[in-house]
TrEMBL record:
This is NADP-dependent oxidoreductase domain-containing protein. It comes from Euphydryas editha (Edith's checkerspot). Keywords: NADP, Oxidoreductase, Signal. Substrate binds at H137. It comes from the Eukaryota. Residues 42-304 form the NADP-dependent oxidoreductase domain. The lineage of its organism: Eukaryota, Metazoa, Ecdysozoa, Arthropoda, Hexapoda.
Length: 327
């Protein structure tokens, strides 16, 4: 019964969120008044090949219509994204104002004092004066830093916004307890929370919680276990051949992967599909000419296996850190 009530509550919340969408610009209104594109290109990948693939992928994505790029200091690719941004702006493909650049604070920063120097380093690599969205990458002390405190870090994030080095500030991988601590001690409410959301990890409760506070959810790993996850120590069987996805793809004249992207948008979240393949990137962004019904969203929710792709502790954490070369 609780699960059913949660799904109904989420649908009601999404109806409110949809009122903030601008259909003409494909953006959503954040709680700080800024408008953010409702689809992003993910750039997380193996760091040892970032110099060979990231710049080209970002250029092709922007040429295909993407206006939000998601990166992080820990991804070790900000420099290549900066080169791509400079390229498309210099060629007149877009203006800086048309782009939304999201980056994340390096997990090795554990206090207020380290935030601004780290952000300025990211800005230098990205070749921009201000980032559109700046996130705390994780509430956890992933770097084993003495006296790590994400509440202190959040004060530094507020400093960045006040100095106009970041238009919006938010968090990533925070649960409701983490967010409640920020709300109780801080001036600025996070504009966003970037968390894992996909058909095999629907994360209904946390998404609904964030949306109830007008905190926009960005959904990473949007395809869950429907794409290969060679680093995962938890085998989960799920593919794009799930009957409900195939049925909806036939109904709307789309591919099952496009149904998944649209599902996340229609839940009121911002999906972050990751690809360096130009044709796949174009496929992922071709989702703005249809909309799923609340009943169809609930049917896709039933694919949930409550298993995450990315874990931030123990052997599962080390497995993906080593695979992507984040050490």
């Amino acid at each position: 019964m609780f699960a059913i009530l949660l799904q109904i509550s989420a649908i009601v919340t999404v109806s409110t969120v949809h009122a903030k969408y601008s259909v003409s610009t494909n953006t959503i209104l954040l709680n700080d008044g800024n408008r953010m594109p409702i689809l992003s290109l993910g750039t997380f990948g193996k760091t040892n090949i970032a110099d060979k693939v990231v710049k080209t992928a970002v250029i092709e994505a922007i040429e295909a219509g993407y206006r939000q790029i998601d990166t992080a200091a820990a991804y070790k690719n900000e420099e290549f994204i900066g080169e791509a941004i400079a390229d498309v702006i210099n060629r007149g493909i877009v203006t800086r104002e048309e782009l939304w650049i999201t980056t994340k604070l390096h997990p090795e920063v554990g206090s207020r004092e380290g935030v601004l120097p780290a952000l300025r380093d990211s800005l230098k690599k990205l070749k921009i004066d201000c980032v559109d969205l700046f996130l705390i990458h994780s509430p956890d002390n992933l770097g084993g830093i003495p006296e790590h405190d994400y509440l202190s870090v959040w004060k530094g994030m507020e400093d960045a916004k006040k100095l106009n080095l970041a238009r919006s500030i938010g968090v990533s991988n925070f649960n409701s307890t983490h967010i409640n601590r920020i709300l109780a001690t801080s001036e600025i409410i996070p504009a966003t929370n970037e968390i894992e959301v996909n058909p095999t990890y629907t994360n209904l409760e946390l998404v609904a919680y964030c949306q109830s506070l007008n905190i926009t959810v960005l959904s990473y790993a949007p395809f869950g276990f429907m794409v290969p996850r060679p680093f995962s120590l938890v085998p989960v069987v799920s593919t794009f051949e799930e009957p409900i996805l195939v049925q909806l793809a036939q109904k709307y004249g789309k591919m099952p992967s496009q149904i998944v992207i649209r599902y996340l948008i229609d839940r009121g979240t911002i999906p972050i599909p990751r690809s360096v393949n130009a044709s796949r990137m174009r496929l992922n962004i071709d989702v703005f000419d249809f909309q799923l019904t609340p009943e169809e969203i609930i049917l896709i929710n039933e694919l949930n296996q409550n298993v995450k792709v990315y874990y931030f502790e123990g052997k599962r954490f080390l497995a993906f850190v080593e695979y992507f070369g984040l050490l």
